[in-house]
Amino acid sequence: PNKENQYEKMGSDVTMLCGSLDNSTSVTWKVNGTDVRAPHRVEGPRLMLPKVNSSHNGLYSCFQNPHGERRDSINLRIGLPPREMSITCRSNTYPKGFYCSWQEHYPTFIPTMFEVDVQHNQRSLDVQDDPVHKNRCHVRFPEVFSSFLYHVNVTAVNALGKASSTFSFEESTIVKPDPPERVVATPVRNNPRRLEVSWNSPSTWPDINSFPLKYFLRYRPLIREQWQHVELSDSTTHTITDAYAGKEYIIQVAAKDTEIGTWSDWSVAVHATTWISEITSLLKDYYLKTSPSSVPSSKAPQKAEPPVGRAARVLTFFSPLMLGMLLLFMW
Amino acid sequence: WEFLLSFFYTVRYPQLVLLLAAAAVSALDASERSSIESTYELTKYLEYQLKEIKDVYLTYLGPPFNEKDFSPPRPNSTALTLPSAATRLELWHGLENQARLAQNQRAYSILLAAVRELARSTLCPSLKTSLLHFCTGLDGLLGSISALMTTLGYALPASS
Does the keyword field hold Magnesium (chain B) (predicted)? Predict the structure, then answer.
């Protein structure tokens, strides 16, 4: 006797039939090798389970009395028919193609398949399943700058029923690039108010020459909540000129097609600290220390090597009083 | 007016010229290159102008056009004879510069005729002036494209 799946709706009354035995046959039922504990009724070859829920899931076997030959094995799976879904579509590879994702609002608990149909200008487009994401599919744009809407229909199907949802959109509204990549921020030597930022356009954007992107940069010192914003066209570099000296900054960049669609998510945040002179660094470290004879910390704000050796020597030359006078002159 | 409104939404002419610029720039000398680049800059400026005029025009028309989410009805069949900006990119990339320039010329001529008609039938004087000013810019663009085609030795398309 082969094992088959029996799918039943949650809350319903379920009947399981042992093979094709006639009504006078007497059988014993077991679930997962043990006795059936849930409330149930046995009538001849039938097992009745009222108002089932997921605790009834299991492998049910029936054995013919009195010798106990196994006649059938049924894998009972309790679930729900599909219901409406939300569909979203996005093009991060404009003008090549787009992908649509859907999300079920209610779980079905049993295997559910999805059929996707995309219509454009009264023609059905070819749809490819995503190899990784179960609820996603990919479509190539048949043409660009089209005024015809795209109509996406997703039908969810399982053993207990089916449900369809639709989503329509215009080409330009779904364009959203991936965030810029490889964002790098470096301090500028001898220029404590500057940070040089550079980045690359997202690698998924197929034709940066014909479809250029514009960028949005935001930055703030780590200790502040408020961002400063700069909108840039085309260029993939920018120099911040109003940073605070010796402060650590967070910087992020976003991208958008120059004409259509929406801004990408923010790129990964990069941290950079503005350059400050060695003297300033030493004085800062000195005044942070409780004991003047201790060696200053090797924490260096810039990429240049921490001047630990030189710092120790400088401190042995200057007494605290002289350093205080130097401080007066520096500020 | 339905045609004209749809046109505002569907014409993406800067992208047409952009495609031209990307392909043509590499093959030409410095003055031709600079000529194409300034023509391209002009289309960017005109697109900016058109966006502004569109907003003013929709406000002028009143409801439902002046509503935030207004979107004109889309044609749902190819039976309509609206000129379309829809492009098969692989075909576009395969075209010679002459064909691309000629298509740009045609697209902007259609737009110019449409906006002129719009200006003619607009009663609001300031809007009429803005539209006519835009037409002047478009006319200049057509002149630039014609000059470029002549420099490159291409025959100009017959005016319709």
Answer: no
